[in-house]
Amino acid sequence: MAQTRRGFVQMAGMGLTAAQNRAYGGLPASEKIRVAFIGLGGMGTGRLNGFLKHDDVTAVALCDVDQTHLAKAAEIVEKKQGAKPELYSDFRKVLERKDVDAVMVATPDHWHALPAVMACQAGKDVFCEKPLAYSVAEGRAMANAAKKHGRITQMGNHIHNDLPNYRRVVEIVKSGMLGKVDRVYCSLASNEKDLGKPADAAPPKELDYDFWLGPAPKRGYNPNRSHFTFRYFWDYSGGMFIDFWCHYADVAYWALDLQAPKTISASGGRWLTDDNAETPETMEVLYEYPGVVLTWTLHPRGRPGYEHMGSSVIFEGTDATLVTNYRSHELWVKGKKEENFTRPPQSIPDSPGHIREFLDGIKSRKEASCNFEYGFKLTKGGLLGNVAFRSGERISWDDQREKIVGPTKASHLLTRKYRKPWKLAGLG
């Protein structure tokens, strides 16, 4: 902890105002984790509230390119801490501060890699929302930066830690109760609404739109292409599929110790809406892992079968089938639900919570469970699904070299050319 706390001595030397003292809630400054928050839209504000529930956190800086977001977030912090934090529109200024121990990044996907990598280089620990990265190359750069600079990191797929159900599912699968599991079905009921076709317009005065675009291509401002609905455009994200991939594929990777798929193919389209969005609302992705076939269904009604479970993951074994959603699971044998069955003894400890695990890691220097290396391994599968969909190719993947095997037109989708002047160290 000493290495990440050098700024505490400097801060004590400068003195603290009474309002700042009140912000520490009874804990001495040396026990506080000073967090800066980058990206304060809906998800970012939710994470801000989540961090502020912990008494050993103080929000020292807020950053967003939308002044409306900043103002609302500042009110939350002032109400909680009794003093307004410093406000920024340029994350680079935040990273220059010596009194920031960790940053939370909840920007749109195309903005995850730059602040996360630069934060690692600046000696900050990093919590970054899922999916970890916009592209495979960015994800690799983020994982490498965290390792190189010895940072504690956490990807924000909170279901992994905040709900105990996945732990019990993993225990059941690993116990052998299902027999050999060779098929997994992930199903997401997308429930996408038609976004319409609004015309391009001048960006709102409170939004620095050029900075919002950042490394993405220059485009005219369109209401559908920013804030929440950015995820439906290839310039910034990969649709509902990549948005939820980490939440559902996580339990399969965890239970079966999946690494990387060998082959990936995908088909679908934006068939049920008539708007200007680009990403599919209907898609089937087929993955071949060693000994396991994983099928992902994206459709407004989800996958047929087990509809009562909603969006879910199905483990099909030689002896039984296990169906799970976020909060509950069911065991089925020969088409019949087992109302009472003996679960294996608990072998995975309960979690202190996703944010708490990250905060504890900052203090102990113990890696969090969804650190950037794991987050990249998990996110990579979803990113490759979108590469297969966009290229129209069946991809053969060499994970050791992180390259597509054989003649292909899809390789350019593994990275992106950054718009000047933005550059990312380690981007291959």
Description:
It is built from 13 helices and 16 strands. A hairpin with a 2-residue loop joins strand 13 and strand 14. 32% of the residues lie in helices and 19% in strands. It is globular. It folds into two domains: 2-160 and 363-374, Rossmann fold (3-Layer(aba) Sandwich), CATH 3.40.50; 164-220 and 229-347 and 376-414, Dihydrodipicolinate Reductase, domain 2, CATH 3.30.360. It has 428 residues and is an alpha/beta fold.
Relevant terms:
428 residues, alpha/beta, Rossmann fold, Dihydrodipicolinate Reductase, domain 2, 2 domains, 10-stranded mixed beta sheet, 6-stranded parallel beta sheet, 13 helices, 16 strands
Overall CATH class of the largest domain? Alpha Beta
Oligomer: single chain
Net shape = globular
First-residue to last-residue Cα separation: 32 Å
Number of domains: 2
Structural class estimated from helices and strands = alpha/beta
Tell me, rounded to a whole number, the average pLDDT: 93
CATH topology value of the largest domain: Dihydrodipicolinate Reductase, domain 2
Give the uncertain stretches in residue-range form: 1-24
Q: How many DSSP H or I helices? A: 13
What fraction of residues sit in β-strands? 15-25%
Helix proportion range: 25-40%
The strands making up the biggest β-sheet line up spatially as 14-13-12-11-7-10-9-8-15-16
Rounded radius of gyration (Å): 22 Å
| Pattern of helices and strands | HHEHEHEHEHEHEHHEHHEEEEEEEHHEE
Superfamily at the CATH H level of the largest domain? Dihydrodipicolinate Reductase, domain 2
The CATH architecture of the largest domain: 2-Layer Sandwich
Instruction: Give the strand tally.
Output: 16
Largest sheet: 10 strands, mixed
